[in-house]
Amino acid sequence: MTRGTGRFRKMLVSVGCASLAGAAVFAVMALPEPAVRLAGPVEANMDRSGVTHPVTAVLLNFRGYDTLLEIAVLLLALLGVAAAGGSEKIGLRRLPSAPHAFLQSLTRLMAPLMVLAAGYLLWAGSHRPGGAFQAAAVLAAGIVLLFLAGLLPERLQSDRLLRVGMVAGFLVFLAVAAFPLAGGALLQYPVPLAGALILLIESGLTISLALILSGLFLRLPDEFEEEEE
After folding, report:
1. Residue-level pLDDT at 33
2. DSSP assignment letter at 219
């Protein structure tokens, strides 16, 4: 492929991306005014949500099925990555080179702080911005950092443990969602237990999402690395 052809392809891709972005902006700007304002109903029912932050109330109570399906999509995405690798095991990719000593020292310092930050984000989600997704993103970054530094514990590399951990949060969410069916509806928590059930869901989701998000990186097929070489 000549240099001129490569530049033309890059220009074509750039124009296509810019056109798509412009169309998306135009579509958003052209949206009509919503017929129903949801902020009022959310505020009116906050005392029944079990939390004091409206975003958490919407994501894990009023519209909990959206979050449940998001977890399922992420889990399916990881299974797709594993299938693309041509292996039934959810093993880890190989390190391209031996980790640097400075990276290992920095990781030993940062990893405990990242776990502490993730715990705070999980706890804060009930009354301020935070929650399972943010906490899981920090934990996933910590797992990737430990892997790159060659310090990932052996128990986190266990194929069985990874499988159980990845689906545990989704299964806990399903179990809690079905819990009140005897006297209510799916994902309709008893008001006195709503706060505790949401905390249980978020705790399970934090672990599972961290393993799923880190797994999307750690489970990339080694063929990608070989092609780059």
Report:
1. 77
2. T
Q: Summarize pLDDT for 117-146 with one digit per residue, the tens.
A: 999 999 988 888 888 899 999 999 999 888
How do the domains of the chain map onto residue ranges? 49-228
In angstroms, the CA 168 to CA 38 distance is 32
Residue 7 parent element (H or E): helix 3-29
pLDDT score for 39: 76
- Measured between alpha carbons, how far is 121 from 52 in angstroms, rounded to an integer? 15
Are the beta carbons of 162 and 215 closer than 8 angstroms? Answer: yes
Q: Which amino acid is at 172?
A: V
Q: Classify 187 as helix, strand or coil.
A: coil
Which stretches of the chain score pLDDT less than 50? 86-91, 182, 223-229
Identify whether the C-beta of residue 167 lies closer than 8 Å to the C-beta of residue 76. no
d(CA 106, CA 14): 38
SS3 content of the chain, % helix, strand, coil (to 5): 75, 0, 25
- Which pLDDT score is estimated for 147? 85
* Pairwise CA distance, residues 102 & 108, whole Å: 10
Sign of the C-alpha dihedral, residues 139, 142, 144, 147?
negative
The pLDDT of residue 174: 86
Give the separation between CA 87 and CA 132, rounded to whole angstroms.
Answer: 30
